[in-house]
Design goal:
Strands 2-1-5-3-4 form a five-stranded mixed sheet, sandwiched between helices. The chain is globular and about 45 Å long. It has six helices and five strands; from the N terminus they run E-E-H-E-E-E-H-H-H-H-H. The protein is 50% helix and 11% strand. By secondary structure, the protein is of the alpha+beta class. Helix 3 runs antiparallel to helix 5, helix 3 runs parallel beside helix 6 and helix 5 runs antiparallel to helix 6.
Length: 219
Amino acid sequence: MSIVVKWGRERLHFSLPPPNSKLAQLRHEIAEYTQLPEHSFKLIHAGAVMKDDNAPISAYGIKPGSTIALVGGGEPLSPAPSKASAARKEKAPRTEQSTISQIQSELDKVRSTLRPDVDSFLTALSPSSAAAQVGPSPTVTAPPPKPASAAASSARPPADLEQEHVRLGEMLLQSLLRLDAITTEGEWEEARRERKGAVKEVQALLDRLDGGWRTRARS
């Protein structure tokens, strides 16, 4: 029985530890194999960052065949904010509504930029794979305009498709990390629902991306 650790374009296979094993044990094994410092990377499973190294892996729902994403490894996920912008953020008080706006802003970016790119990528792999949608799809009278990259997507060589798969996967994982970093106070029920829904939507898009890529690899 094994699990898969997705690290960039690599898919690493590790033996599944016993259910009561601490996450720290799995982190140590991954660090030894990748030669990364143990606390320089984050592990993501089912759209959530696994933060507590003392928790058993069963608490995170890890089972045979599970896929865990490794992100980080000492490289910054995004440019560090300037001192001026950090000072402005410290002065602005956080409210539930501002937190919801932050969540919706992140989700809007995914919907407007990454989702069209994922659709174009899946169309380039196989026209049938792009038709697989998660959840109900709204009825439209005319198809939306495709991004500029879509016109040439079908002509991409395999190496370009592989690079695009890695790029889209990394960007979706970074979006999941940003959503995970948005904290909600105990009484902010609406904000928690918004974040949970956003994580679910982005994770579903990542699953579509990886599912289409695996289908192509098997064909």
